[in-house]
Amino acid sequence: MKVTVVRSGGVAGMVLTVEVDAAALDADAGAQLAGLVDACELTDGAPSGVADGFAYEVTVTGDDGVVHRARFGQGGAPPGADALVAWVIDGPHGQRRMGR
């Protein structure tokens, strides 16, 4: 499974992309990621109600190639998405790219 989080917007308008490949994780981190994905409702949420807020796109690609995607704004995440986004963006496991 691969999880990709794209965060865009904010005051500076920067785009942060972080991808985590479960195959590259140790057993504990892999189990954490799987639990967060299982607890996340991958449905589109509300746009950001915050001025200069962030927009998020979360993509989960299963080992079988099936892709699930959710888009939402800051403060409008579907259930479980905030925890998944925080784990991916704030954790040490992902490959990070910044751009505009």
Widest beta sheet: strand line-up: 4-3-1-2-5
Give the C-alpha Rg: 13 Å
Mean pLDDT rating: 94
Structural class comes to alpha+beta
Order of SSEs, N→C?
EEHEEHE
Q: Name the poorly predicted regions.
A: none
How many β-strand runs?
5
- Helical run tally: 2
Can you tell me about this structure?
There is one protein chain. This protein is α+β, with helices and mostly antiparallel strands. 23% of the residues lie in helices and 35% in strands. The chain is built from 2 helices and 5 strands; from the N terminus they run ββαββαβ. The chain has helices at 27-39, 81-90, and strands at residues 2-9, 15-21, 54-61, 67-73, 95-99. A 5-stranded antiparallel beta sheet has the order 4-3-1-2-5, with helices on one face. A hairpin with a 5-residue loop joins β1 and β2. α1 packs antiparallel against α2. The longest helix is centred in the first third of the chain and has 13 residues, at 27-39. It is globular, with a radius of gyration of 13 Å. The model has no long low-confidence stretch (mean pLDDT 94).
